Every structure is written in C-alpha cells, then in structure tokens.
Amino acid sequence: MKLCTVGGLAVMLAAGGLIVAAPPASAGCLYGGPVISKCDGPVQPDGTWQRCTAVYNYVPSGLSSHLVPVKRCDLMGPGHDYPFDFTFTDPPTHIDD
C-alpha cells in the first residue's frame, strides 16, 4: 500500500513539473469596443495565427428585437490582408497577454 502511495505521488509530481515547465501558448484577447471579444491563437512557424472575433448581430423579432452573438475566425499574419475589415484586423499585429 505504501509503495502505491509513493509511486502515485511521484507520478503526480512529475506531471506537475511538466505542466509548470511547458511554454506559454502566447495567445491573448481584447474585450469591449465594437466587438464582444477578439482573441488570437498561438503564432505558427510560418508567422500566421488564427484570430476569432465575436460581434453582436441585431435580430428583429415581431414587436421586440434581440442581439445574437456571431463568431468569425480567420488567419492573420504575412500574406493575409483584409484592408476594409478594421473590426477584424485592428490591431494588425498579434495580441499578446
């Protein structure tokens, strides 16, 4: 029984050490303004990253209306230009924490 407890503790400590030693994901988010959220994924070896934005979409419904969130994800970085979509591309660089 003691051997199992010691072995289990050793495995937990080893796993915890790997988690602490892992490099950060280098992803960040911005909230508010014209969007609900704007988040960047990690930068890939080719210099690109995925950016996801969430915006409100106005939906009329009879005598009332409501806002529905809409999510858009696309690649950013070298070779990916979106010249007229400033809500998506601002800032044009990677968002870091």
UniProtKB/TrEMBL annotation:
Origin organism lineage: Bacteria, Bacillati, Actinomycetota, Actinomycetes, Mycobacteriales
Annotated CDGP domain residues: 28-96
Signal peptide bounds: 1-27
Keyword set, alphabetical order: Signal
Name of the protein: CDGP domain-containing protein
